[in-house]
Amino acid sequence: MTTLPACPKCQSAYTYEDGAQFICPECGHEWSSSAAPAAEEVRLVKDAVGNVLQDGDTVILIKDLKVKGSSLVVKLGTKVKNIRLVDADHDIDCKVDGVGAMGLKSEFVKKV
């Protein structure tokens, strides 16, 4: 019996082969059986002054930011605790006191 590789996306062991493709039933990821598993690309997110950000960091805004779809403005110097990094245009997800959940760009924050 041939051992099938784990899913490169979710690491599930329940992959199956369909012709020249491997398929993961848990996340739906499909990949070629001839493709070697690529090393995960590590993406560094840096703040406005070049410090590397990580999940759970505390940052301060370095610019007044208008909240899209609202008349609210998040003021310069606002401290945002417990950030979460995401792979999107706005690379920080957070909760800002008085505003709620929002996405920020790392170029407008400074690590504390």
From TrEMBL:
Segments forming domain Protein YjdM C-terminal: 45-112
Gene3D superfamilies noted in UniProt: 2.20.25.10, SH3 Domains
Domain Protein YjdM N-terminal: 3-32
Domain of life where this protein originates: Bacteria
Cross-referenced NCBIfam families: phnA
Stored PANTHER family: PROTEIN YJDM, PROTEIN YJDM-RELATED
Entry similarity comment: Belongs to the YjdM family.
Name by which UniProt lists this protein: Zinc ribbon domain-containing protein YjdM
Species the sequence originates in: Pelomonas parva
